[in-house]
Design brief:
mainly alpha, globular
């Protein structure tokens, strides 16, 4: 009997998982350093971890958000690995060098904010870049240059693209110090005149007819001696 022939379609393709994305991010950015000479892989892992409350495509895009920016890996290479079209779209949108004007940071933020999923990834990226310890270190290294102004200015644009509770989930995981800034901003945006706020009289609830108890429910069960 001849050996069975297997076609490519019969061979199951390995699924590209969130864990696969995490490992790929660690490997792809392994030798890279950030502005403070720290391992860059720590940043991409932190961004992916911050999106743990969201679906797999968003989490994968979080781990790989800088892979097209800082490595030779292309969109097609990611698709060939099994990355979904949706995740690849998010990665492409948050890749600065692929924007129409890469030098215009704020224009890039507005472009990213046009897509809900990409905004979530960029919020996590922004939050990690804005950690207090990192801000202090950057300020010490470049005292004549405000290091995080662009991140601060980008946050309202990005936050407006998603639900506020989604922002809270991300910040709570990656940069809780930004939660107060978020609350202060929401307070500033609230133009309700609470001093002169009037409340309409609550409607009177409709009366509910009283149902007389059924006689048998008041009596003990003849068999068990217990009330039904």
């Amino acid at each position: 009997m001849s050996a069975p022939e297997f076609t490519e379609a019969q061979i199951p393709q390995a699924r590209f998982t969130v864990e696969t994305a995490r490992v790929l991010a660690e490997v792809a950015h392994n030798r890279q350093k950030d502005k403070l000479k720290r391992p860059y892989r720590d940043h991409v892992i932190a961004v992916g971890d911050a999106l743990a409350d969201f679906d797999d495509d968003i989490r994968i895009a979080g781990y790989l958000h800088d892979i097209a920016e800082d490595t030779p890996i292309t969109r097609q290479a990611l698709l060939d690995m099994g990355v979904s079209e949706r995740a690849a779209d998010i990665i492409e949108r948050v890749t600065n060098r692929l924007h129409d004007n890469p030098d215009d940071y704020q224009a890039g933020m507005h472009f990213i904010a046009e897509d809900h999923d990409a905004a979530l990834v960029k919020i996590a990226d922004n939050a990690h870049n804005s950690l207090p310890e990192r801000v202090r270190a950057l300020a010490a290294k470049w005292p004549d240059k405000p290091p995080v102004t662009k991140y601060r200015d980008a946050r309202p644009v990005l936050y407006a693209a998603v639900d506020v509770e989604e922002v809270r989930k991300i910040l709570a995981r990656i940069n809780p110090w930004l939660l107060k800034e978020l609350d202060d901003r929401l307070d500033d945006e609230d133009d309700t005149d609470y001093e002169n706020l009037s409340y309409e009289e609550a409607p009177v609830a409709e009366s509910v007819p009283v149902v007389e108890p059924v006689d048998t429910l008041e009596k003990a069960d003849a068999t068990t001696g217990e009330e039904k």
